[in-house]
Specification:
The chain has about 120 residues and is mostly helical. It has helices at about 1-10, 30-35, 70-75, 80-90, 90-95, 110-120.
Length: about 120
């Protein structure tokens, strides 16, 4: 009897936790892997199609040695902080017109951007 009552309670929609929509359960590393890892790594010196993002927060844009940045990125004239990264990940062309991030056009999910930035800001 008790077991059937518990089964009844758990089968009620209001008693069950709602399944998360989108990527709420995704970690920062997973969000990074999904959106960025095709071109970028976070290991120092591991440049791929894009530059490595090791210690990107606090680095001057376009300044990583041994990577061929676009002239637009080299001349961007700013240091990466969390706000600048958020805006860039959302829409690279708006922050640095003429950058070489094609075909990447941006990540609309502010939640995923926050997770990625938190992941990038972690000490390694």
């Amino acid at each position: 009897m008790a077991l059937s009552g518990l089964t009844y309670l758990l089968s009620q929609p209001s008693a069950l936790p709602q399944a998360s929509q989108g990527t709420e359960g995704v970690s920062g590393q997973q969000a990074f892997n999904n959106a960025c890892r095709t071109c970028h790594m976070v290991r120092e010196g591991d440049n791929r199609l894009g530059p490595n993002l090791h210690k990107i927060v606090g680095r001057k844009a376009g300044s990583l040695p041994d990577y061929g940045f676009s002239s637009a990125m080299k001349e961007a004239g700013f240091v990466w902080d969390e706000d600048k990264l958020d805006r860039f990940i959302a829409n690279p062309d708006e922050v640095v017109p003429g950058n070489s991030m094609k075909p990447y056009g941006g990540l609309s999910s502010s939640d995923d951007r926050k997770k990625i930035i938190a992941f990038l800001a972690q000490p390694r």
